[in-house]
Structure formats: C-alpha cells, structure tokens
Hints:
The chain is mainly alpha-helical.
Amino acid sequence: xxxxxxxxxxxxxxxxxxxxxxxxxxxxxxxxxxxxxxxxxxxxxxxxxx
Length: 50
C-alpha cells in the first residue's frame, strides 16, 4: 500500500475519489478509526467480508 507523509500544521480537508473496489474498502474503514470526526464512505461494495 502506498503511503503519504504530511508534515506541517495545516488542517487537511477534502475528498478523494476512489473506485468501489473491495480491496480499497477495508483499509479505508480501518483508517476512519483514526479520527473523531464524522466520516462517510460512499461507493463501498456490498460484500459479506467487508
């Protein structure tokens, strides 16, 4: 998995368009645990193991 390191004091905001790939959904769900903010994941495939 690629990594992006962000150094600085600026607040990050924005959106990232991704495809509805099964392999992209799980890391995004786990990454969402790192924030106390409300987060909405859209275009996530309806699969039993995700």
